[in-house]
Amino acid sequence: MTSQVSSPAEQADGADSTLVGEQRKPAGVKDVHRLDRVIIRFAGDSGDGMQLTGDRFTSETASFGNDLSTLPNFPAEIRAPAGTLPGVSSFQLHFADHDILTPGDAPNVLVAMNPAALKANIGDVPRGAEVIVNTDEFTKRALQKVGYAASPLDDGSLDGYSLHPVPLTTLTVEALKDFGLTRKEAERSKNMFALGLLSWMYHRPTEGTEKFLKSKFAKKPEIAAANIAAFRAGWNFGETTEDFAVSYEVAPAATAFPTGTYRNISGNLALSYGLVAASRQADLPLFLGSYPITPASDILHELSRHKNFGVRTFQAEDEIAGIGAALGAAFGGSLAVTTTSGPGVALKSETIGLAVSLELPLLILDIQRGGPSTGLPTKTEQADLLQAMFGRNGEAPVPIVAPCTPADCFDAAIEAARIALKYRTPVMLLSDGYLANGSEPWRIPDIDELPDLTVQFAQGPNHTLDDGTEVFWPYKRDPQTLARPWAVPGTPGLEHRIGGIEKQDGTGNISYDPANHDFMVRTRQAKIDGIDVPDLTVDDPHEARTLVLGWGSTFGPITAAVRRLRGSGESIAQAHLRHLNPFPRNLGAVLERYDRVVIPEMNLGQLATLVRAKYLVDAHSYNQVNGMPFKAEQLATALKEAIDG
């Protein structure tokens, strides 16, 4: 969905929703309150369709023109036992009439489809918030499954909330009684009933959802009709029931962004589009060699849809085959990509080292998740930085790029391609599960805004021997970039040997000479050190003494926390790294300007370790590895302590 908005604005992010106005309707019609922001969390069993419900609410919110940020939270089990805590799936959406940065700290509204969903999420819900529960699922057996001795709907434990007990299943089955469905089939539509109710509560558009359902179930029109009926029944229930006396409006974010055409986009989708755009700007075919792994698989799924743009996707039998095919495609003249997560990077490490030795452009997209080993497949973490930096045998330097928001994944993919193509090197891109599955508005760029990535392949001899003979040297370097020529196989006269054994400078012949090896190692390192990356930009309006330095997906929570602190009169500076190898050339000078440097990371201090080692700065780590992104209030508290020293 796309919408037109204009002009940027800054507001505090992650705070509670605020009542900014009240509009009274005529007698007999419900009141409408206007809010500046709302945080909604849908939660239920993994089979209750919470991700679909959240996606649809998000799409309609995007089409309405609100700024938004989402946090899907999946269970790790493929199909955990129904009604258990490990099987709870949730989707949190923060939307507002102004610029926001995070999915929000605490939901204003919790929709709980069963006791497990309530128990797993109620601890995050502040007192006074609205809690909508599906009472049909609060059976004695379901309560016992999650350790409730008595129903929380009856024992007073929810008295501090605005509780709305709704028999969602019964109402859905009743609404669909004329459709000839079995009870089980009808019950599956209860998520659409809930979506209709929430759409009424927050005045969301409905046309897009109905169109989506018709398309999704085009081959089963009776199921499409039933879901649409359940959706409309939920809307009508909100309109007519006395339990919901008020509905709410959140105006479009008309002043939050520069003028342009926007659409809602997730991080993995933005990466996919960025790769396609990079291949078009480079005028090269795009090849993806990949093995499915959470949370990177969506990139393979998406790119497989774009054969019309010269994209070729290969689902390999394992991680090693995936990167091997990609490296072969790079040798053949394609913009080559492989996608994975941390465990897959471990398996790909030998071939990444081979790509370093061959000095060929290759993009390795690591969508990080909790580790070690299989770890937390569906949870987020940014603990692969040191693996990306050092996780290969020998001296095998690789540039590292990290996007900071879901939409920024598009630009980060293009930047990674620029570096790989210009400097003839594999490049690691570090996204994570939070960015991959989360979404936000993205301004669709004009084609003329994209960089020219055109590559010149080697066409003939590039070196003259002492006897005057003209030959092709595959490792004769560009004096500015130290990149070697890219010779497409089959080009007459450009035949050359490749392989993992050390090469002689210039000729590329096998060499065991110690001095040559020393020279080649230092040259490959110098090439990476010499990559042209922009200087680090520092946001410091008040000459602060404390700097918070981040990388990757911590950008949203850090920025929200900084806004909160500045709003309360504190002075704090902020900088965020996109390029982690090499670091921006001015990073050392930036760090020296501050008395205190705080580095929040979703690991145990990996960037802090690199910064301390390289710049001898006593950087302070603030770390979290619980599989979830930072909360703005949590970071604000930690940063306030750092300011106070």
Structure report:
- By secondary structure, the chain is of the alpha/beta class.
- The protein is 34% helix and 20% strand.
- It contains 20 helices and 26 strands.
- The strands form six sheets. A seven-stranded mixed sheet has the order 13-12-14-15-17-16-24, sandwiched between helices. It has a six-stranded mixed sheet with strand order 5-6-4-7-8-9, with helices on both faces. Strands 21-23-22-25-26 form a five-stranded mixed sheet, sandwiched between helices.
- Helix 17 links the parallel strand 22 and strand 23.
- It is globular.
- Residues 1-12 and 20-27 have low confidence and may be disordered.
- Counting DSSP E segments of at least 2 residues, the number of strands comes to 26
Question: Separation of termini?
Answer: 47 Å
Mean pLDDT: 94
The chain-level structural class is: alpha/beta
- The neighbouring-strand order within the major sheet is 13-12-14-15-17-16-24
- The helix content, as a percent range, equals 25-40%
Q: So what's the overall shape?
A: globular
Q: Would you identify the regions where 5 or more consecutive residues have pLDDT less than 50?
A: 1-12, 20-27
For the biggest sheet, the summary is: 7 strands, mixed
Number of helices: 20
Using only CA atoms, what is the Rg? 27 Å
Classify the beta-strand content into a percent band: 15-25%
Question: Which features characterize this protein?
Answer:
645 residues, alpha/beta, seven-stranded mixed β-sheet, six-stranded mixed β-sheet, globular, disordered N terminus
